[in-house]
Specification:
With 89 residues, the protein is of the alpha+beta class. It has one helix at 68-88; strands at residues 4-10, 14-20, 23-37, 40-49, 52-55, 62-67. The protein is built from 1 helix and 6 strands; from the N terminus they run ββββββα.
Length: 89
């Protein structure tokens, strides 16, 4: 069944999060697309892959979509926790 894009919306400040060998990495979301397929509608994040744009959730290592600020805060907290563990050793 083919996905039909009904509408696209800007996605400034959002990232798609991927699992890269146990570590999370983020890639900027280009837009959100309102997609219709098999009589149902859903909003899906789209990312750039070179000169093409595709659905983030179609990639095998996709984890979630998240606001960039929240992703960076989690990353900072993880780094602080690692620093504290090293200081205790």
């Amino acid at each position: 069944m083919q996905d039909n894009i009904i509408q696209i919306m800007p996605a400034a400040g959002w990232v798609a999060v991927f699992d890269e060998d146990g570590e999370e990495s983020a890639q900027g979301v280009v837009c959100f697309a309102l997609v219709e397929s098999a009589m149902k509608r859903e909003v899906r994040a789209m990312i750039a892959d070179g000169a093409q744009i595709g659905f983030a959730d179609a990639l095998p290592n996709f984890v979630r979509v998240q606001e960039l600020d929240a992703f960076e805060e989690e990353d900072d907290e993880d780094e602080e926790g690692e620093d504290e563990e090293e200081d205790e050793a």
